[in-house]
Design brief:
single chain, about 200 residues, alpha+beta, three-stranded antiparallel β-sheet, two-stranded antiparallel ribbon, 8 helices, 5 strands, about 50% helix, globular
Length: about 200
């Protein structure tokens, strides 16, 4: 137990432990904000997250299997969440014209209204980040980008549509480059969720 990052004595003597503890607190903020939305809408946090994801991603990604990987949950868990959303008429299933056994999920007008209502739940955090100077934001983003890529490499995050996992990404040791857009990528141009992402 003494080597736990939750041990205050270890935190106070280890920058690594302090960073992990700090990330845990930020994660707690997201959970709290989502639960506030949950109470207001009568939806579970994962149901809200599913609606938000579907609102901003292409139909090919709006399927049960993809959502399960995206949120690191089992297909039955996602299916249960989707079933409730369909019953509440927030989602509809759209049958694939080329495969009647397959379908994607699409927001209804009521579902879009929920997205409008809940989509700004993290704005308070965004406003705080907005008060940081440009250099601080770039360093923070580059650090988060590197950490998220590392988590993906270790299998702790399943789906990533970030530059470093894309077939178009190039890096010569100094310059990040997008082969699709044909542009060099400064740290603040690296993407975590790219619509043109093609997994390497």
């Amino acid at each position: 137990m003494s080597d736990s990052i939750f041990n205050v004595n270890q935190q106070n003597s280890s920058v690594d432990a302090k960073i992990v503890a700090g990330l845990e607190r930020i994660g707690e903020v997201f959970r709290t904000l989502l639960w506030q939305q949950s109470r207001m809408t009568g939806l579970s946090p994962i149901q809200i997250q599913v609606l938000l994801f579907l609102a901003f991603h292409e139909p090919a990604k709006c399927r049960i299997g993809y959502l399960a990987e995206e949120f690191n949950l089992t297909k039955p868990t996602i299916s249960d969440a989707v079933k409730v959303l369909v019953q509440k008429e927030l989602l509809v299933r759209v049958v694939d014209p080329f495969d009647s056994r397959s379908h994607s999920l699409q927001l209804t007008t009521a579902g879009q209204e929920i997205v409008e209502q809940t989509g700004s739940f993290a704005n308070g955090l965004s406003q705080l980040i907005g008060k940081m100077d440009g250099g601080q934001k770039t360093v923070l983003y580059e650090s988060l980008f590197t950490l998220i890529y590392g988590l993906h490499q270790h299998g702790l995050i399943a789906v990533q549509r970030m530059c470093k996992t894309c077939v178009h990404y190039q890096y010569d040791g100094q310059i990040h480059y997008c082969g699709l857009l044909k542009i060099p990528l400064e740290a603040d141009l690296l993407r975590l969720d790219c619509p043109e992402h093609t997994h390497a």
